[in-house]
Each structure stands twice: as structure tokens, then as C-alpha cells.
Amino acid sequence: MERREVVAAAVVAVSAATAVAVLVRQWQRSSERRRRRARSFLRRLAAQCATPVPMLQDMAKEMAIHMGTSAAVVSNVKTLPTGDEEGVYYGLNLSETNFQMWRAQLGGKRDGVVKQECETVPIPKNLMSASIEGLFECIAKELAKFVSTEKDSFSTISTGVEGEGEKRLGFTYSFHHADYRSESSWNAQIRWKTLSDDDAVGKDLVDKMNKALQRHAVPMKVSSIVHDSVGDLAGDRYYNGDVVAAIILGGGTNAAYVEHQHVEQREPKSREKIIGVELGSFSYSRLPITEFDADIQAESSNPSDQIFEKFVSATYLGEIVRRVLLKMAKETALFGDYIPPKLKIPYVLSSPDMAAMHQDSSDDRDVVGEKLKEIFEIADSTPIVREIVADACDIIVERGARIAAAAMVGILQKQGRFGSNKQTSVVTVDGGVYQHYRLFRNYLNSCVNEIQGSECSDNLHIQSTNGGSGIGAVFLAAAAAAASQVENLLHN
């Protein structure tokens, strides 16, 4: 009897082990099928996102043509800093939610920036729905306080220009296009056209700002209100005379560059024009648009606008990847037999989080696993799944970086910086997508060489910006003051 029981128990144990083995094999086959489907999905996505060099070369040519349209305007900034400027100057940088007041003491070529200070002021909620005049009143009031502390920490006071004690105030603004969906009523009034040399709206804004300064007894004068790409260009030119263009690749996408012009010798004007380019609005018929891009376009507040920006800016890169992962979850069961609910939430994946996953170099992609759990509540992910997620990020980011590289080459072609021109050209890039995203930066830099060839690229240097548009506003003020002094001397 006992022997039969032992045999029966053994049979049961073997049967159980066999059943477990069958289940394991089924799970392994299921996982392998999911992996193959996911890899097949990524191959199709990579083909749709392909950016071959001939296409990018053609795109660069189209970009150069694009800059001859209304998307490129001559800035009302007449001169850029040289590094010779001396004295104390002020700058203002206005963003969607705050403004920064800058002050710097410049010591010329020998001492450079001796000292600088910055104070950030949040814009009160009630001013979000106020008029532009209300905003300027707030700025002037805060500037009056800021200026009153100058003698406490700065030993040198800049020479007046138009009147005794009057200084120039540089004014830059930093709105990317997505901000125009916000609740503020005044940011729509400060748009790209305020860069224009002959724009009536821009001149009216300058006049309103100067009147607000007068009412608060601030001894300053604004000459122009310009986009932050012009501020970046000024800031970088102060340190390096070879800088010919500044590009912003962050939440928004814009650029400014220098173009030479013929000027009669008797005219005391600069031989350079500063051109602003709204890169984000560029459209090219052969852009590799996927269903994910098309859906974002259709659902956005500006479905037929800012097409280029939606390929390269931090506002959209993470969202494109989220949509890719959601479709993979549905079609390939990448994360198992259920769709993670948080994967369905638009814009839940930020570009910095996507960058962290993409650049995870650990053996098992541990950072990817942490981010999947933190953002999408996907608790258990295998190393294979994490690798697939990182590859999805790579496809979208490489496409964006190569498209951005073509735009950069287009600007340089418009300037005539290639071919027989052997001058050194420095392009500076601002914005988190370039400065804080190593793989994006590497893809962009290498693609410029692919498009133009290594010989042409030997004289081209791509660098991160030196200081940004805030301190750039200070340098614009200093350059404007110096140019005004020269002009006054020539006319007297």
C-alpha cells in the first residue's frame, strides 16, 4: 500500500513539474513573440523616420530659401558687442512666468565681465490677464528698486548717452510657440514680428516700455524688444568675434544670424545685419512625418503651424515617444497583456525623463526600469523590454537631431560660409535639448559633417552658448550705447 502511495506521489510530482515546464515554455514563447513583434514595429518606425543625407542636403537648401521669406526678419538691433565695452549696463529678459533683471560691470577687452547680478521676479497672477501696459508698469517698478541698489555693489557707473545719467536697457523675451496657448493676454502682443526693423507693433511696445520707465523715474531707455535668439547671439559675440549664428533648441526653436551688407562709408552704421529666423515654422515637403507626428499636429492648438518645432523641441520629443510606446503596448503587448493606464496620458513623459532613459548605459538599463515605474507605473519590466524602450527613444531623437542639423547648415549656406569661404564660423546653441542631451548633441554634430563633408566642416565650430539671452540683453545695451556715442561724435 505504501509503495503504491509513493509511486502515486511521484507521478503527481512529475506531472506537476511537467505542467510547470510547459507553462514556462509557453511564457518564453509568448515573450519571444512579443519581442519579435516589438522589434518588427521598431524597424518599421526607423524606416519611416529615416533621414538620408541627400534629403537633408535638399532640406538645407530649402531652409536657405525659407530665410528669404517672412519667417526671417531684419532685427532692429543695429550693432553687436565687440568686447571693448566698459561701464555698468542693464538687461531684462521676459519669459512666460517671470522676468529677470540683469546688471553687469564690463571692463573692456582686458577685464571682460567684472561683475554681474541677476534678480528674478515672478509675474503676479493678476497680470496674466492684464494689458501690456500693466505688465510694463510692474517691470518698471521692480527695475526702479533694482537700479537703486547699484551703488551698493558696483564701483563704476556707465556714461550717459542721450541725457545725463540715462542708460540703455537691453530687452529680450523668451516665449516659445507653445506658450501662446497660455492664459496671459499680453504675450500674444510680443510676438516674432517685434524683431522687425520697421514693425509698427514693435515700435509701439518700445514706446510703452519707455513711458513706464519715465513714470517710475528709471533713468533708462529701451531701443528694441528682441527675441532671445538675438540676445544669445549678442552674448556669444561679446566673447568671440567669430560667432556668426545662435540657435535655440529647447522648449522652442529659433535662431539669429549675422549677414554682411554694403554700407556707404559716410554712413556711421554697422556693416552687419542681424537676422532673426523663426525656425519652428519651417515646413518641408519631405519631412519624415509618421502617424504619431500627424496626430500631434491634428490635436495641437496650431495644427498647420510650427511643424519643424514639433520634430525637435523639448515640448514634443517626449510626447512622440509616449505615443510610440502606447501603440507598441497595444499592438505588440510590449508591457504584457494590459495597457498601462498612465501610458494613455498626453505629455506625461517629459523630454528630460525620456533623455534619462535614452542615455542609460547600465547593463540592465536600470534607469529605464525606474522611469517606467515612476512615470507609467510599470512595476516589472525585463531588460529586453527596457532595451526596446531605449531604442524607441533613439529613433525619435536621432531623427530630430539630424533635422536640426540640416537647419543649421541651411543658415550657414544662406550666409555663404561654405565653399571657397575659409573663414572660421562659430555657431552657438542654447536650450536644454542640445546642452543637456548628450546623444542629441552628438547626433547633430556628426550629421553636420555628413551633410557638408569634413573638409567644409573643418572651419565650423558648434558650441554651447556662453551665457544666454539674459546677459545677452546687457551686452545689447552696451553695444547700443557705444554705437550711439560714435554716431553722436560723427554728427557733432
UniProtKB/TrEMBL annotation:
Enzyme class: transferase
An annotated GO BP: intracellular glucose homeostasis
Ranges for domain Hexokinase C-terminal: 245-478
Entry annotated with the keyword Transport: no
Domain of life: Eukaryota
GO cellular component: cytosol; mitochondrion
Residue ranges annotated for the Hexokinase N-terminal domain, each copy included: 55-238
Keyword Transferase part of the UniProt annotation: yes
One annotated GO molecular function: hexokinase activity
Keywords, comma-separated and alphabetical: ATP-binding, Glycolysis, Kinase, Membrane, Nucleotide-binding, Transferase, Transmembrane, Transmembrane helix
Name by which UniProt lists this protein: Phosphotransferase
